[in-house]
């Protein structure tokens, strides 16, 4: 009988990903501190290492504008086209070097290295070097016997960057113990602020305290997830690599407007645009939806403005992914929600009660989506795939809406637009 | 003799799919000679994660056939060597030049007599961003 090899995972995480992306095509910014702002230039959502001492995460832009200027920190609007493309490049490079990869978020991925021959520390360093050279993005690598420990190893690689060279292997007992003892329990994957507050009165302050707690007891007291976390910290792998995302159960498209909207017409454009985008996402995961929720609201924090927020649920006549039907339904819903005299700041379209195409069984007498609609949507997606998003739109969706988000500080689309490439003399 | 292959994994490679009609009449003489369509993407390796497009401004590389407004294909996986045309940043300023590296002497050379060589001195910081593999220019007089 052959022994199953010990499980090994790596967590590869990009350092200050959004800020690093902004630097790839701007060598002049290599040492300039950078922050990236959320949609509508609202608040700080990413900071380069140099900016971290001066700006906190989630601080509103208008509050920190002076601090930024004083310290020579450059602010960028979020450029998701760029970040998405760079993320894909990073993940493709890593995919070529490991047997299996789970892309966990836009800037981190788990790799399973179980059974791989050779030095994994060297592999970690090779991944780091190649991603850096091929994409310009710095990454850290954490290696361990479980996903939870790999995540903590990665945190250690980041915290003690100069000592570790950005790669930490926690498979040896001694190094595991050292890192667990030096990490706050709040740094453990899945331990949020609320759970941390529950654990501290029990004397659990470090990751080491948690690893040595009674897994079963705490599991009963709090959740099975916590029990798994504790077992993973002790080196028993409970979480496997998830290579394929399960289709999402709901799809949401909501955005703030660049300026407040009072009239129905621009609101209708916004709702139609969000519906258009949501339906695209729906079709790309091959789902159909049975319900939609449309909501609008005014700003919530300005005491001088009248406030209004309301949503409505729409039942669709049959499970559908037809943009035209969904746009009609969403605009009808909007007309029922709309009250004149308010200054609206945000609209939201959510698709709910999703089912996978082919999985739902038609009631013998129920109406289902006509085949012609499927062909039209297929052509629509094919055209937009070939010539770029928004080439073919429903008439209700404007090409360049006046209400679009404020993104006054956005960098170029260096990788997705021929007219916006990096320019070199 | 059995050869055990490794585990199958997903690949992004796209293989052409042909649909054959079962011939009721005369078989097409072309079916034996099907080949890939020509793809500039493949020639330039444009979809690889280490390939980037950069727009050139100015006349400093005209001797190498790279003109103002041309596109160049830049490969970041190639180890830069003496003689390569590179995208390089000197003290943060990105430039397209020919890399000269002989012993201790490192310089970025233009391919235009009006631009003198730029020697890399002690206080300078040189970062090679990538190696130019192809250039693309439009010959449309209206463009």
UniProtKB/TrEMBL annotation, chain A:
Ranges of residues in domain UmuC = 9-192
Q: Name the UniProt key words of this record, in alphabetical order.
A: DNA damage, DNA repair, SOS mutagenesis, SOS response
**Pfam families under this entry?**
DUF4113 (PF13438), IMS (PF00817), IMS_C (PF11799)
What is the top-level taxon of the source organism? Answer: Bacteria
Matching PROSITE patterns: UMUC
Family affiliation: Belongs to the DNA polymerase type-Y family.
Q: What is this protein called?
A: Y-family DNA polymerase
Q: Which organism is it from?
A: Pseudomonas typographi
TrEMBL record, chain B:
Keywords on record: Autocatalytic cleavage, DNA damage, DNA repair, Hydrolase, Nucleotidyltransferase, SOS response, Transferase
Top-rank lineage group of the source organism = Bacteria
**Domain called Peptidase S24/S26A/S26B/S26C: residue spans:** 16-132
One Pfam entry for this protein is Peptidase_S24
E.C. no: 2.7.7.7
EC primary class: transferase
A GO molecular function assigned to this protein is: DNA-directed DNA polymerase activity
Q: Show the NCBIfam families listed in the entry.
A: PRK10276.1
Q: Report the family membership.
A: Belongs to the peptidase S24 family.
Descriptive protein name: Translesion error-prone DNA polymerase V autoproteolytic subunit
Origin organism is Pseudomonas typographi
């Amino acid at each position: 009988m052959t022994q199953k090899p010990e499980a090994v995972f790596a967590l590869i995480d990009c350092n200050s990903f959004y800020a690093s992306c902004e630097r790839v095509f701007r060598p002049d910014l290599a040492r300039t501190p950078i922050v990236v702002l959320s949609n509508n230039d609202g608040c700080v959502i990413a900071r380069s290492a140099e900016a971290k001492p001066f700006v906190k995460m989630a601080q509103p832009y208008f509050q920190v504008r002076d601090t930024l200027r004083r310290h020579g920190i450059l602010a960028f609007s979020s450029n998701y086209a760029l970040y998405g493309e760079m993320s894909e490049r990073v993940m493709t490079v890593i995919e070529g070097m490991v047997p299996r990869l789970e892309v966990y978020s836009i800037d981190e991925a788990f790799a399973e290295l179980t059974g791989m021959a050779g030095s994994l520390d060297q592999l970690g360093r090779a991944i780091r070097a190649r991603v850096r050279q091929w994409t310009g993005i710095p990454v850290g690598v954490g290696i361990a016997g479980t996903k939870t420990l790999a995540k903590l190893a990665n945190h250690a690689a980041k915290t003690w960057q100069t000592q570790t060279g950005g790669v930490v292997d926690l498979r040896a007992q001694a190094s595991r113990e050292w890192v667990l003892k030096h990490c706050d329990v709040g740094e453990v994957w899945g331990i949020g602020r609320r759970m941390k507050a529950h654990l501290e009165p029990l004397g659990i302050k470090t990751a080491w305290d948690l690893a040595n707690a009674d897994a079963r007891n705490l599991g009963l007291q709090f959740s099975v997830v916590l029990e798994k976390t504790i077992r993973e910290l002790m080196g028993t792998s409970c979480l496997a690599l998830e290579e394929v995302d399960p289709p999402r159960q709901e799809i949401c498209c909501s955005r703030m407007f660049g300026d407040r909207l009072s009239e129905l017409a621009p609101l209708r454009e916004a709702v139609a645009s969000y519906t258009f985008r949501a339906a695209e996402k729906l079709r790309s995961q091959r789902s159909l939806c049975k319900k939609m929720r449309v909501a609008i609201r005014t700003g919530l924090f300005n005491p001088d403005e009248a406030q209004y927020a309301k949503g409505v649920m729409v039942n669709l006549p049959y499970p559908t992914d037809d943009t035209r039907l969904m746009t009609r339904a969403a605009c009808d819903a909007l007309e029922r929600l709309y009250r004149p005299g308010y200054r609206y700041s945000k609209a939201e379209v959510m698709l709910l009660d999703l089912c996978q195409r082919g999985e739902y069984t038609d009631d013998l007498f129920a109406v289902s989506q006509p085949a012609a609609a499927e062909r039209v949507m297929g052509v629509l997606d094919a055209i937009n795939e070939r010539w770029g998003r928004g080439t073919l739109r429903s008439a209700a969706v404007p090409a360049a809406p006046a209400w679009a988000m404020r993104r006054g500080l956005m960098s170029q689309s260096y990788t997705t637009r021929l007219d916006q490439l990096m320019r070199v003399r | 003799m059995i050869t055990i292959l490794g585990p199958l994994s997903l690949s992004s490679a796209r293989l052409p799919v042909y649909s054959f009609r079962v011939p009721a009449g005369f078989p097409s003489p072309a079916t034996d000679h099907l080949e890939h369509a020509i793809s500039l993407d493949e020639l330039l390796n444009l979809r690889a994660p280490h390939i980037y497009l950069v727009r050139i401004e100015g006349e400093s590389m005209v001797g190498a056939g790279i003109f103002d407004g041309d596109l160049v294909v830049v490969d970041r996986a190639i180890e830069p060597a003496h003689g390569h045309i590179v995208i390089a940043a000197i003290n943060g300023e990105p430039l397209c030049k020919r890399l000269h590296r002989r012993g201790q002497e490192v310089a970025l050379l233009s391919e235009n007599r009006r631009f003198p060589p730029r020697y890399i001195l002690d206080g300078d910081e040189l970062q090679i961003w990538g190696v130019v593999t192809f250039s693309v220019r439009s010959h449309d007089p209206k463009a």
